[in-house]
What we know:
By secondary structure, this protein is an alpha/beta fold. The chain has helices at 3-6, 11-25, 33-45, 59-70, 85-89, 126-129, 131-138, 173-176, 190-200, 214-229, 235-247, 266-271, 278-294, 302-313, 321-325, 330-342, and strands at 49-53, 74-78, 90-96, 102-108, 115-119, 140-143, 146-149, 155-160, 181-185, 252-253, 259-260, 272-274, 318-319.
Amino acid sequence: MSAALAEPLTVADFARTFRRIQGEIHKLIIGHEQAVEGLLSALFAGGHVLIEGVPGTGKTTLVKALGTALNLSFNRIQFTVDLMPADITGTRVIVTGEDNRREFTFQPGPVFCHILLGDEINRATPKTQSALLEAMAELQVTVAGKSYRLTPPYFVMATLNPIEMEGTYALPEAQLDRFIFKVSLGFPDEAELIRIISSTTGPEEAGIQPVFAHAEAAGRIEALKRLVREVMVAPAIEQYAARMVRATQPTGANFMGERRGGAGDEIVNRYVSFGSSPRGAQALILGAKVRALLDGRANVAYEDIDAIAPLALQHRIMLNYAAHSDAVDAAQIVERVIKAVRATRT
């Protein structure tokens, strides 16, 4: 271990490193400041992120820029309908040795890397989509009854194209819940579009400089992730996060006939079938810890929970038919929940 890694990291070290990575990414990515911050927050919180945006908004470029800035191994999988699970995880192949003996040898798939881009994940079949679940949750892949460990840090970024739904397979709610945040890339405004044109059609290309040396990149990132875990959270803040997650649940009985004790908000009861799972509360706290460090604090505040709630909760809310018919989306529901729960603070 190098001397730099042996020294304990401070709040200032985290904020400085985070902003430096962010700055390198923005050499190539025009705009999308909140999306880039959300992406890096997911990385240091130890989760995975879902990126949604129409074609041409820079989803793939953003992920490639992150891999270059971190100086980590990076693989890309273009999901298609004919992609098989073995194409992702790897498979066993017959290899002939020097003594002419044949034996099965595991050939790792593209999932074996530090940063994995799953491009247009909703184009693959559910069987292939689920091949990522074990890697995301347990940092391992099991093939033919044998498990193979992945090397941390491991960060999966999956992109969704929301405008071409023909021939796609929507991710089930249980799989969406595996992503700590969902980041949306909006269409650039006129000024940003002009900057994109100028920077991508000229004779020179923006060069991203790696923030870490290759040998120390993985260790530095893991150390920063451990620092996030050490941020203090008061019991009142934990209660606030739990109350916010509970507020996304409508009152009434669930499909098993059990009573659900939601917040009783009229809009939630009218438009939400199922609210966030407990993973939503975990995402709130971890994302809030990252935000606290960026603000120079070693403790989480109420405002950190409010700020991270849209990223952590929107993709975890299942809307009913009434919401679709009335053009109500999850962002509006989360905004309503934040306001309602904020009013209960003492």
